[in-house]
Design brief:
This protein has 297 residues and is an alpha+beta fold. The protein folds into 2 domains: 90 residues, Phosphorylase Kinase, domain 1 (2-Layer Sandwich); 189 residues, Transferase(Phosphotransferase) domain 1 (Transferase(Phosphotransferase), domain 1, Orthogonal Bundle), CATH 1.10.510. It contains 8 helices and 9 strands. The chain has a 6-stranded antiparallel β-sheet, with helices on one face. It has a 3-stranded antiparallel β-sheet with strand order 7-8-9. Helix 4 runs antiparallel to helix 6, helix 4 packs antiparallel against helix 8 and helix 6 packs across helix 7. The longest helix is centred in the middle third of the chain and has 19 residues. It is globular. The protein starts with 10 loop residues before the first strand and ends in a 5-residue tail after the last helix.
């Protein structure tokens, strides 16, 4: 078992730091207490790690610029299924931004894939891999696609759709809050990580592995397809595999088709963007909710 990371600070501005929620190559995410509002908040602070600097040949200033752009982007999107930003400031020369504290994420509902030692210490206590119901899977796909449509409508590609970046207000019934657009592809930006692949390997489209610069919204659609397959089947697609309906008989034919097209290696077979995916998943979701008597979540 890996040791839990300790926060680099006890206090950041007025915020009391309680624990590390997650640490990435360019930042740390802390659970904090806001004494003015008397509530928990999530605070993300720019702390660049040597492993990231060694992996990608971009300057500290470039990464810091992306971090600030990330906060401003989240603040502008203002969507019910995208995490909001309450404040952008700096502490000891390091930018940070403050968000609502969200209880958990999809990893803790779907469970881990593979050895828990492959996961960061702060998520090793997630359960082992498990299936989600067809109704819950459709709901998460619908809400995540709705969030992604706000990105794609602005010409942005998220490029890091994965369970840990899909926050949930409550396990099993909560709403989606998409987060962490740190690897987002901005239109005509020099910080598009040209010639390198970025993201999380299990969910990355083949073309994104070749070059993260040369992707469009359909790379995110591929990740949605993988996510849908994983939720329904309980394991990641690998090698030669059939549609989720082969494993779960109650999966509607239309949902099976949508997921398989979304995961196609042929980019042109996938839905063009999240709005097109949303148009297809919406009636499937409604059908499943009606047939199973689901009223919410």
């Amino acid at each position: 078992m890996k040791e839990l990371l300790q926060p680099a600070y006890d206090k950041i501005g007025k915020f009391d730091v309680k624990r590390v929620i997650r640490s990435t190559g360019s930042s740390d995410l802390y659970e904090c207490y806001d004494p003015d509002l008397d509530i928990k908040v999530a605070l993300k602070i720019f702390i660049i790690k040597k492993r990231l600097m060694d992996k990608l040949p971009y300057s500290r200033e470039s990464w810091q610029r992306r971090f600030i752009n990330e906060a401003r982007l989240l603040a502008r999107i203002d969507h019910p299924h995208v995490i909001g930003v309450r404040e952008l400031s700096s502490w000891e020369g390091l930018p940070y931004y403050v968000m609502p504290y969200i209880e958990t994420n999809l990893l803790f509902e779907m469970g881990r894939d593979g050895d828990k030692e492959d996961y960061a210490a702060e998520v090793q206590h997630a359960p082992e891999a498990q299936k989600l119901s067809v109704a819950r899977s459709c709901e998460i796909l619908f809400q995540t696609a709705s969030a992604l449509a706000a990105f794609h409508g602005r010409g942005l590609v998220h490029r890091d759709i994965k369970p840990a970046n899909i926050l949930l207000t409550k396990l099993h019934t909560g709403l989606v809050k998409l987060c962490d657009p740190g690897m987002v592809k901005f239109p005509k930006s020099e910080e598009s990580q040209a010639g390198y692949w970025v993201g999380t390997e299990d969910f990355i489209a083949p073309e994104q592995k070749r070059s993260a610069k040369d992707v469009d919204a359909r790379a995110d659609i591929y990740a949605l397809g993988v996510l849908g397959y994983r939720m329904l089947v309980g394991e990641l697609p690998g090698g030669v595999f059939s549609g989720p309906k082969e494993e779960v008989a109650e999966v509607p034919d239309s949902l099976n088709d949508l997921i398989m097209r979304s995961m196609s290696r042929k980019v042109k077979r996938r839905p063009m963007n999240a709005l097109e995916f949303l148009k297809e998943i919406a009636p499937i979701r409604a059908q499943v909710r009606t047939s199973q008597g689901v009223n919410n979540g």
